From TrEMBL:
Keywords: Cell membrane, G-protein coupled receptor, Membrane, Olfaction, Receptor, Sensory transduction, Transducer, Transmembrane, Transmembrane helix. Gene3D superfamilies: Rhodopsin 7-helix transmembrane proteins. It comes from Rhinolophus ferrumequinum. It is a multi-pass membrane protein. Putative odorant or sperm cell receptor. One of its GO terms (cellular component) is plasma membrane. The chain crosses the membrane at residues 26-49, 61-83, 103-121, 141-163, 204-227, 239-261, 273-291. This is Olfactory receptor family 10 subfamily G member 3. It is found in: Cell membrane. It holds the Pfam family 7tm_4.
């Protein structure tokens, strides 16, 4: 142990994602545009929900505004560092920077899981319990649920970061990934990682499985309620309010399950799958919600001074 303690690492080198050198400039510009559009799109939704009086007091759009904040945070934690992979020279990350990146990614990522579950529950109440919805999902409860999601996400992120970096890292320092994530970092530890791998599987598996199960249960009830609506227009409007959420949940959960819940952690497909929750989903969030959500589009028209009418939930 004395030898390990005397050679502890102070920095890591992220290898990034493999790519042909001739595409270096294209990939840099591509992810730069993805990052800029992600920030601008989510900021637009956040401002729309905040400014429009018909949206910022309704739980569904409060959740949507919080989701935009999370997406902006995840994109900022991951994408700028990913872009450095497409520039010349080796750019190491400090040990503290690696700890911070892992913590904030799992903090924001798990909070997003909880938020998706809250959004599904909100839609369940709005569609299956419409008469009691104002009582069952009021502003005070909405704030409590959101605060609980942030606290639970912070605890989850701290647990993963502490367990991962309590191990000694004495070399090599090359992380075979484009950001500091648990499976890639654990491969560099100079100690037995069996307990860490088990805790990671159980902890993340519990979060993903429980949240996804609750979302699935909510949408089974929602679909049954929608099918009982007599008018085709009513069914179309009900499906429209849920379609965007289902799309984003699918794009987010499937790659996460592939990354953390499979036995083989060194698959080359892992890096490609990780691009979805870290870069693609935050980019798609504002795009899907503005194109699929009629009320957000009407709110945008009201903000810029165009004609618009309100619509029912």
């Amino acid at each position: 142990m004395e030898r390990v303690n005397s050679t502890l690492l102070t920095e890591f080198i992220l290898t990034g994602i493999p790519y042909p050198l001739r595409l270096r400039t294209f990939l840099f510009v591509f992810f730069l545009l993805i990052y800029i559009l992600t920030q601008l799109g989510n900021l637009l939704i956040l401002i729309t929900v905040w400014v429009d009086t018909q949206l910022h007091t309704r739980p569904m759009y409060i959740f949507l505004g919080i989701l935009s904040i999370i997406d902006m945070g995840i994109s900022t934690v991951i994408v700028p560092r990913l872009m450095m992979n497409f520039t010349l020279g080796v750019k190491p990350m400090s040990f503290g920077g690696c700890v911070a990146q892992l913590y904030f990614y799992h903090f924001l990522g798990s909070t997003q899981c909880f938020l998706y579950t809250l959004m599904a529950y909100d839609r369940y109440l709005a569609i299956c319990r419409p008469l009691r919805y104002p009582v069952l999902m009021n502003g005070k409860l909405c704030i409590i649920l959101v605060a609980g999601a942030w606290v639970a996400g912070s605890i989850h992120g701290a647990l993963q970061a502490i367990l991962t970096f309590r191990l000694p890292y004495c070399g090599p320092n090359q992380v075979d990934y484009f950001f500091c994530d648990i499976p890639a970092v654990l491969r560099l530890a100079c100690a037995d990682t069996t307990v860490n791998e088990l805790v990671t599987f159980v902890d993340i598996g519990l979060v993903v499985a429980s949240c996804f199960s609750l979302i699935l249960l909510s949408y089974i009830q929602i679909i049954q309620a929608i099918l009982r609506i007599r008018t085709a227009d009513g069914r179309r409007r009900a499906f429209s309010t849920c379609g965007a959420h289902v799309t984003l949940v699918t794009v987010y959960y499937v790659p996460c399950a592939f990354i953390y819940l499979r036995p083989e952690i060194n698959s080359p497909l892992g890096g490609a799958a990780a691009l979805f929750p870290t870069a693609i989903t935050p980019f798609l969030n504002p795009l899907i919600y503005t194109l699929r959500n009629q009320e957000v589009k009407l709110a945008l028209k009201r903000i810029i001074g165009g004609p618009g009418t309100t619509s029912d939930v």
